[in-house]
Amino acid sequence: MIGNRKRLSSGLSVTSKVFVRSRNGGAQKIVREHYLRDDIPCYSKACKVCHDIIKTDAAGELPRFILSENPSKTKSGLRHYIVVDTNIILHAIDLLENVSCFYDVIVPQTVLEEVKNRSFPIYQRLRGLVKSEDKRFIVFHNEYAEATYITRNKNESINDRNDRAIRKVASWFGTHMKTNHSENDIGIIFICNDADNRQKARAEKIDARSLVEYFDDLPNGEDLRDLIPSDINSGVDFHNENEASFPEYYSNSRIMAGVKNGTLYQGMLNISSYNFLQGTVQVPAFRKPLLIVGSQNLNRAFNSDSVIVELLPKDKWREPSTTIVEESNIGSNDNANDEDEEDVGSAGSGVVSDKERILLAQEALKATSSSAGVQKRLQPTARVVGIMRRSWRYYVGQIAPSSVSSDDTGNASKSCFVILMDKVLPKIRIRTRKAKEFLGQRIVVVVDSWPADSRYPNGHFVRTLGEIESAEAETEALLLEHDVEYRPFSKNVLDCLPEEGDNWVVPDLVNTDDPKLKKRVDLRDKLVCSIDPPNCVDIDDALHAKPLPNGNYEVGVHIADVTHFVKPNTALDQEGASRGTSVYLVDKRIDMLPMLLGTNLCSLKPYVDRFAFSVIWELDDNANIVKVEYMKSVIKSREAFSYERAQTRIDDKSQTDELTESMRILLKLSKKLKQQRLDAGALNLASPEVKVHMDSETSDPNEVEIKKLLETNSLVEEFMLLANISVARKIYDSYPQTAMLRRHAPPPATNFEQLNDMLSVRKPGLSISLESSRALADSLDRCEDPQDPYFNTLLRIMSTRCMMAAEYFSSGSYGYPEFRHYGLAVDIYTHFTSPIRRYCDVVAHRQLAGAIGYENLDLSHRDKNKMETIVKNINRRHRSAQFAGRASIEYYVGQVMKNNEAEHEGYVIKCFNNGIVVLVPKFGIEGLIKLEMLGDVNTAIYDEDKYELKFTDLQGKERRVAVFDKVNVDVKSVKDEVSGNRKAQLLLR
């Protein structure tokens, strides 16, 4: 290899590498050229030289100079910029995002590329910092700057070359700022946690520091040291290195070979919500999920980690545990500074009761039993031997009071435990000097590592959210826990909005030069109205209907034309794609798009002109489609109804105006559409949906009620379903490889095994059929209890939990038979009708616009790989939004019940050795009643085959409680002193 460099014109030079490659006896000369520039600026506002060069030589748009002319000072008074190494980005990205000292940061291009190759999610977060004008992060393209480009030396590794390149950037900036600064002296501090690289930098006269050293020279450095990740916190030892608590993970080569030859399996770990020492992994090779029991077999895996598991011998296969084991009851007296306690096995340690130990020990022997019941429930067991992808994120919890010493002076960092809000996760050990100060606070932590010789994962403190049980802290906590993006929209995003703001109006369609506007159909003469929940402001959809001369009906669904404002590949589009969906909490809404669009310009408000995307059918009297048309349109809604107000108007026979008559047509046709779906096998499942009423003056929750569904709810639902089905067919016809669709897979029979077994034991003669969705629907209709009208609803709720989750997908990912939506009993489906709050619908709108020739479809929605990335994110965001919404309801229901203890009806839905789970329909909540709250724990006998728990209650009477039993319970709200969570406490009457 021969290298040389030559000067070109216009500030360019080129370096070339010449390779000679021999193939088939011949020699081939290969020349690779790398172009370099001498006019790449430093981007510092203090540098007059670079400003003058750019003003003189640059053409077109000038680059923005971002680095402050008056940057932060150290204790010693040094004004400085920061150059960061790759390991700082990878291990301390949350510090860079959240800590106030990290401004005016220079990211060498070499670092950016290394981060991209090692962690794409962190790379995206780093790009977000660079785009944020507030933080003043710049990327310096050292690989294209003549002054900083270096070639790789002979026998030098690529890592060593890159380290040298990063040091070159720090050195060049130091010299450059000394030579070209304005009035202020500005130094360069190179932050690097690689000791060898730091030593080499110092030898080259670079001010190189570790994170600890840098923080120690800042005015508030002592407070900042607690924020340093444990795995790069030099000198901090969390554990006893002589203790080996967990098996080491297999090597990558062994894992790859094992997966290939079928001796190892990969899947996602799901930890039981009732026993944190038990998890399952679903893999295609087995009919039932693989069962993983005990901390040794779980082997440091977190819930939702992608894990590699190894099957255990058949003599170790067992049935799932029937004992409740909570993390808060295991090792609650552990010392955060001591690793000498016994390991947590299947039975645990700490304050587990003698009764629980006996029950767990009995379960360990069940695998040797030959009873039919045990054999029926037996599952293959496995152990975790590797982690493919960690699910680690920001976690919210509170300092465990028992881990904070009463004589802690707060002068030195000490270890303590953080109990997380998510009860299936282990506590995290952190070091902080402010443990006492953080008691009673919701705090955010990050997991850094979980070594094999540590019983607990190690992490570090990030920030506080506020007092436990304050509405602000609890709301922010649940958003963080469910990974919901809730920060305000950035300036780059807001800059994409129309300049007219609130004053934007629909342009003149006639006197316009815009060819797209001329394609719009003027539908402002149609009697369009919207029907939504009360006080809805982000109105996605509106409808109209009218009779036709031939006896058929014209029916239109009009959807907010969000894509008129959200153009592909803009900052606004990228933010919407990242958020994926709006999130609805009890007290607030986290918007996918800025409020100007969601509640104003896109919202189909009444009495004003709005752009829409319309689907218009001709339907016969039986609601069969005669023809369908799709068009971009302009509409003017006549009225915005709530469900209740629309129902009242339809039912009022004195109302005979055209708008009311059109709603009556819609209602009549919607009933026929629903019957068609049910006849085809659509499922009518249930979930306990409640609404929390807030006080209009104090915003405090004051009442809970079950949501009432009216005929108008179904009216809107049926036509939204029809629009989604019609659009799905159209976009699939045009884009068979990349159409944005939604599928719902049929549930495996194993999902319903336990529920059917419960029915056969507790309700003989009743069963659920799974041959098809129609068979399932019909069997659910037959499962009635004449003595209890609510039983059928209860069974539908429990059946819902046995179903697979629906998912978005790109049409090229599956064969057409797998497109089917099992719950709706249709062969193809998408989401088109809510683009204000769902990004899937935005993509469907763009694809439909391309399908009808309105505009060309952007490449990002025609590329299979890019569509796969989009659907993966929106599936994750959709699940997170659902869980966050439910968590918000649970929190506020708990607040309502604080001062409203009362007796209510409940239903037993689960039985364990040491407790029961009861669903209370009034509040839509379920609560765990532990054995010690029921009666004498020593008298309890659990009959697993009958799903029945027998015990002597607190009054000395013998009681039997079984699944499906109706029970009376006292419901009140209590605060869990260990986790800080407030939850419903149920006491059996």
TrEMBL record:
Domain named PIN: residues: 80-199
Listed GO MF terms: 3'-5'-RNA exonuclease activity; RNA endonuclease activity; tRNA binding
Start and end residues of each stretch annotated as Disordered: 322-351
Residue stretches of biased makeup (Polar residues): 322-332
Cofactor: Mg(2+)
Primary localization: cytoplasm
Compartment(s) of residence: Cytoplasm; Nucleus, Nucleolus
Biological process, per Gene Ontology: exonucleolytic trimming to generate mature 3'-end of 5.8S rRNA from tricistronic rRNA transcript (SSU-rRNA, 5.8S rRNA, LSU-rRNA); mRNA processing; nonfunctional rRNA decay; nuclear mRNA surveillance of mRNA 3'-end processing; nuclear polyadenylation-dependent CUT catabolic process; nuclear polyadenylation-dependent rRNA catabolic process; regulatory ncRNA 3'-end processing; TRAMP-dependent tRNA surveillance pathway
Domain of life: Eukaryota
Keyword entries, A-Z: Cytoplasm, Endonuclease, Exonuclease, Exosome, Hydrolase, Nuclease, Nucleus, RNA-binding, rRNA processing
GO cellular component, one term: nuclear exosome (RNase complex)
Every RNB domain range: 520-854
InterPro entries: Dis3_CSD2, NA-bd_OB-fold, PIN-like_dom_sf, PIN_dom, RNase_II/R, RNase_II/R_CS, RNR_Ribonuclease, Rrp44_CSD1
Family: Belongs to the RNR ribonuclease family.
Family annotation (PANTHER family): EXOSOME COMPLEX EXONUCLEASE RRP44, RIBONUCLEASE
Name of the protein in question: Ribosomal RNA-processing protein 44
Record organism: Scheffersomyces stipitis (strain ATCC 58785 / CBS 6054 / NBRC 10063 / NRRL Y-11545)
Gene name tied to this protein: DIS3
